[in-house]
């Protein structure tokens, strides 16, 4: 793993460690009357110009692998004049990460941490004791970018108040474009199996920031999952921008002329692809590694759910019955403008097909409010889709136009901000209402929960996730252990616990624990008296 960290892929990480918070030195003083947003834009401009000439992650790689030795790699660069190799050494300084965005960014944070750790840094979860603060982002959404600039303004105050007796506080932004990810933490782990996107949805900047789709070889993924299993990890999430578009072309014998099966009624923006080892094959292999290890995957594209994938999810006890199905809009007209490759009808048919193929499946989705040209009627169609599908989890955003995208060049961002926000609020309200109803169907059932740790709100409660990835809170009490009848135990992170659900909201389930069990036992007859229905 460390070897792979030092190789090429990380060369494309843009790294900015702002020595002594240089970017902030141009902030208006605290007495300045300019609005916060304007300050943010000023900093943004400053940041962008600095990014071009700033140090890269290679500087950290070099000091992480061999601080005193020069790399012969042509990619190795001399540190910029304001940042010496010596300064890059951690010397027990404490680094605090603040990660913005998706799970991919969380993973990338772990890579950055593993490198800094080797350079002698310590990690802290306490902002106040940090010597280095790193904000981690990929700036996919304009709102996320704005959040970073606003956060920098807050951190400036922390830096100013810092006592002179302490080492100066350094604040940096890590802008991510990492291609290969590997990390593990507690009982769960997430692994990048592919990166990039070929779909070119008109609103999306991902193909420009993450590049074209490329997948890792199946063999190397399996090797890593086996290692995680040996370490006792209980859950692996396979990650990718279009995770189910996975295609391993590294083995010549599988590069046949067999065309790719798409979900019925779905099309692509690119020429159809052929051959390679597909996602169904990977999922099959990964789920065979350890029957006690849960397998999740995110984020999929709805077009890549052929029957073989759905059947596998249904058949394998350890593949979670949870599917993220980003819809983005409930209007076929808007979907066409977004270049999503499906109509509302095709999407709804897919939802029905998935629910028939995987009874009890939990569904989540993404929606954008106020895309270019979205009328009130289009918006109401999205509202009706939320009601019709009744998702368990949702991620909803107001549209913000990004440069480079097709929409930027060809469409008008013509829905007023106020209207976008009003529509977003309406979507959120409907989503919550429907999700509560969907989650309430679990009340009275026993569900298998993988314990993550103590609840953040109460030291006497445990928190874990059910098969559908919903948070489940339950009191930490003594339990019967299914593997050792008569033995009373307390559940720990990494344990599977059967929990009887007693209450549900749009985001959380509550219940009480019935027994500690195993994934295999939970699907066997032993638990049938409690399990109606389990998933
Ligand atoms: S929104 Fe579209 S372009 Fe963006 S990552 Fe998803 S599939 Fe690719």
UniProtKB/TrEMBL annotation:
InterPro entries: Elp3/MiaA/NifB-like_rSAM, Methylthiotransferase, Methylthiotransferase_N, Methylthiotransferase_N_sf, rSAM, rSAM_horseshoe, rSAM_sf, TRAM_dom. Its cofactor is [4Fe-4S] cluster. Residues 63-74 have a biased composition (Low complexity). Signal peptide: none annotated. Keywords: 4Fe-4S, Iron, Iron-sulfur, Metal-binding, S-adenosyl-L-methionine. PROSITE patterns: MTTASE_N, RADICAL_SAM, TRAM. Its EC number is 2.8.4.3. Residues 183-437 form the Radical SAM core domain. Pfam families: Radical_SAM, TRAM, UPF0004. One of its GO terms (biological process) is regulation of protein metabolic process. GO terms for molecular function: 4 iron, 4 sulfur cluster binding; metal ion binding; tRNA-2-methylthio-N(6)-dimethylallyladenosine(37) synthase activity. It is an enzyme of class 2 (transferase). Residues 440-515 form the TRAM domain. Residues 93-227 form the MTTase N-terminal domain. One of its GO terms (cellular component) is mitochondrion. It catalyses: N(6)-dimethylallyladenosine(37) in tRNA + (sulfur carrier)-SH + AH2 + 2 S-adenosyl-L-methionine = 2-methylsulfanyl-N(6)-dimethylallyladenosine(37) in tRNA + (sulfur carrier)-H + 5'-deoxyadenosine + L-methionine + A + S-adenosyl-L-homocysteine + 2 H(+). Residues 63-84 are annotated as: Disordered. Belongs to the methylthiotransferase family. MiaB subfamily. This is Mitochondrial tRNA methylthiotransferase CDK5RAP1. It comes from Chrysochloris asiatica (Cape golden mole).
């Amino acid at each position: 793993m460390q070897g792979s960290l030092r190789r090429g892929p990380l060369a494309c990480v843009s790294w900015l460690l702002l020595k002594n918070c240089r970017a902030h030195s141009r902030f208006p003083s605290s007495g300045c009357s300019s609005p916060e947003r304007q300050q943010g834009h000023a900093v943004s401009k400053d940041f962008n110009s600095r990014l071009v000439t700033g140090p890269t992650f290679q500087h950290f790689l070099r000091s992480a692998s061999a601080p005193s030795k020069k790399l012969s790699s042509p990619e190795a660069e001399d540190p910029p004049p304001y940042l010496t190799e010596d300064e890059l050494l951690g010397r027990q300084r404490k680094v605090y990460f603040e990660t913005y965005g998706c799970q991919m960014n969380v993973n990338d944070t772990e890579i950055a941490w593993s490198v800094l750790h080797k350079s002698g840094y310590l990690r802290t979860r306490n902002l106040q004791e940090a010597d280095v603060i790193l904000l981690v982002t990929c700036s996919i959404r304009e709102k996320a970018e704005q959040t970073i600039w606003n956060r920098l303004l807050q951190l400036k105050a922390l830096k100013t108040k810092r006592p002179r007796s302490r080492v100066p506080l350094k604040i940096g932004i890590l802008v991510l474009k990492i291609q290969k990810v590997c990390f593990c933490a507690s009982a769960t782990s997430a692994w990048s199996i592919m990166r990039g996107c070929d779909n070119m949805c008109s609103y999306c900047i991902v193909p420009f920031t993450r590049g074209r789709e490329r997948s890792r070889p199946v063999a190397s993924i399996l090797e890593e999952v086996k290692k995680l299993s040996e370490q006792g990890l209980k859950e692996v999430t396979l990650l990718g921008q279009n995770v189910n578009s996975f295609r391993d072309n590294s083995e010549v014998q599988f590069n046949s002329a067999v065309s790719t099966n798409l979900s019925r009624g779905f099309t692509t923006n690119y020429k159809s692809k052929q051959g390679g080892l597909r996602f169904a094959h990977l999922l099959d292999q990964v789920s065979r590694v350890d029957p006690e290890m849960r397998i999740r995957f995110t984020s999929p594209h709805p077009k890549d759910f052929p029957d073989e994938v759905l059947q596998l999810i249904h058949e394998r006890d350890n593949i979670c019955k949870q599917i993220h199905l980003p819809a983005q809009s409930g209007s076929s007209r808007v979907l066409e403008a977004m270049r999503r490759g499906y109509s509302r009808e095709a999407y709804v048919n897919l939802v029905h097909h998935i629910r028939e193929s995987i009874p009890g499946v939990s569904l989540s989705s993404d929606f954008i409010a106020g895309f270019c040209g979205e009328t009130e009627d289009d918006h109401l169609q999205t509202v009706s889709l939320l009601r019709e599908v009744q998702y368990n989890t949702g991620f909803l955003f107001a549209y913000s136009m990004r440069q480079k995208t097709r929409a930027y060049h060809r469409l008008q961002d013509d829905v007023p901000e106020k209207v976008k926000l009003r529509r977003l609020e309406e979507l959120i309200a409907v989503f919550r209402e429907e999700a509560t109803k969907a989650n309430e169907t679990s009340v009275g059932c026993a569900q298998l929960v993988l314990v993550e740790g103590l609840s953040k709100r109460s030291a006497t409660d445990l928190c874990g996730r059910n098969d559908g990835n919903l948070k489940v809170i339950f009191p930490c009490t003594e339990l019967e252990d299914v593997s050792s009848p008569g033995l009373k135990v307390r559940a720990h992170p990494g344990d599977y616990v059967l929990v009887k659900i007693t209450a549900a909201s749009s985001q959380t389930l509550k219940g009480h624990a019935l027994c500690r069990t195993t994934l295999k036992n939970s699907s066997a007859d032993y638990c049938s008296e409690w399990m109606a229905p389990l998933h």
